[in-house]
Amino acid sequence: MPVRKRRRWPINEVLMTSSESHPIVMWELTRACDMHCRNCSIGATGTPGANELTTYEVYKTIDQIDVLAPREFIITGGDPLAREDIAQIINYARRRGLDPALVVSPTHQLTADAITRLERNGLTRIIFNIDGSSPAIHEGVKGTTGTFGITLHAMRWAEQAGLSIEVNTLITRHNAGDLRAIADLIRPMGIKRWNLYFLVPITASNQSAMITASEAESLFGTFDEIQRNETFALRVVEAPHYRRYLLQRNLQTRIDNATVGSWEDFRGYETDDDHPQRDLVASAIDNARGFVFISHAGDVRASEFLLASAGNLRYRPLSQIYRGSDLLVALRDPANLTGRCGRCEFRHICGGSRARAWVTEGNIFADDPLCDYEPGVAMPLQAAAHGHAEASS
Ligand code: SF4
Questions:
Q1: Does any ligand 1 atom lie closer than 6 A to the CB of residue 210?
Q2: Cα dihedral 357, 359, 361, 364 in deg (nearest 10)
Q3: How many whole angstroms from 95 Cα to the centroid of ligand 1?
Q4: What is the value of pTM for the model shown?
Q5: Secondary structure of residue 299 in the 3-state scheme
Q6: DSSP label at 231?
Q7: Which domains does the chain have, with CATH numbers?
């Protein structure tokens, strides 16, 4: 008698928006890294994982990424420079018409020569981690020493090589009060974007470093202030409720100016490239909706921080996994959300961090504890955001 395949999640095919059809692809090229950062989400080791993709498999993976026509392609690690074939990999990606950004670690591999070699092989974009405006704060968050100075030196080499520079910052209890000072530090470096990561406490040891929901809401106000004064873009990672905040804030402004009747005016922004709210799509990263992560061993996931695999591209094409895996399709459907996220008016544009729900609640569709919005009180914004105290340092 044939065995019936049981699905673990309710599956409703949901039509993809244009940004979802061309996702951001982030690829953890290797697990190898000489650093031992306190909040490392992958448990990096000094040596590559036993299952790491070979150079040939890397080329095949790039071919598969190309099929997805990603709107952005980011190579991360571990330390991607720990792979001897990194220049070849960048070169091949460029020849396939992709423009990968490379996230680098401040290891002994990060030298002026290495950056120049990458640039000669076609690299145009590089991303550095800065977690504090001073060595003490930066290295306190990372739990390492000497990395602040190395990073600033490397940023200068990257600038001299003509690379476009971005900065990643992991927001924890130790640096949440330092963001304006970090903005002051990175402003003269001519960076293109500041990617602000909200901590997903994957290990028990970093649970105490997570800020509270009300502190996160306060930080959204700080982002507003920073964005008003800076030329670089901000992107928020693992806090999609930043979109809810932006929508509430914009509505509040328009209502204050008597230019809008109701928040229904904002429907449809996801599919309309000319819609005034299209920047919402770029402002935050969603798990599985317009974003896909590939591990060093070829596992395809909804997020860097959501460890459940949707399939492995050694056995099934990436585009098929991204578009059709049960897990990713289920994650894309807001009807599967439970708790406050399931009742929330903003679930179609937000949906909460599924990685944080999984890590903290043990349920991939549960509430995101970093959001304190109570569904049913969409307006006014003052009640949702401005009433909170400033995030603590
Ligand atoms: S309750 Fe959930 S869906 Fe609603 S804004 Fe918060 S995180 Fe987003």
A1: no
A2: 50
A3: 41
A4: 0.87
A5: strand
A6: S
A7: 20-318 (3.20.20.70)
